[in-house]
Amino acid sequence: MNNELRGSDLTRALLARGDKQIWCAVDDDSDEQAMMDHCGNDFTAHIVEFKDDCFYCSCGTAWLFAVPIKTVAATQSDMNI
């Protein structure tokens, strides 16, 4: 059995240990929907709090699901230039 935390469960655990401004893909339907391509729309946010069964981003918007993501700047070799 795999007990590794993922998705919104991981975000809640990170907030509980005191992490601040967790970069997440967000959605109100599911973790899976949060990770899907949204046709150019930006559905990412810095999550700063979990209360009343919602994740709150730094601008105060509430979300039902928040999946931690990694963002890394592309390098020249990544782009094959």
Supply the key terms.
globular, five-stranded antiparallel sheet, alpha+beta, 81 residues
What does this structure look like?
With 81 residues, the protein is of the alpha+beta class. The protein is built from two helices and five strands. It has a five-stranded antiparallel sheet. Strand 2 and strand 3 form a beta hairpin. The chain is globular, with a radius of gyration of 14 Å. The model has no long low-confidence stretch (mean pLDDT 91).
Instruction: Find the count of extended strands (DSSP E, 2+ residues).
Output: 5
Query: Strand order within the widest sheet?
Result: 4-3-2-1-5
Assign a percent range to the helix content: 10-25%
Write the element-wise H/E pattern from the N-terminal end onward: HEHEEEE
Q: Supply the helix-strand structural class.
A: alpha+beta
| Weakly predicted, low-confidence segments | none
Oligomeric state of this protein: single chain
Radius of gyration: 14 Å
Q: Which strand-content bin applies to the residues? A: 25-35%
Distance between the termini: 43 Å
Tell me, briefly, the overall form. globular
The largest sheet is: 5 strands, antiparallel
Supply the number of helical segments: 2
Mean pLDDT: 91
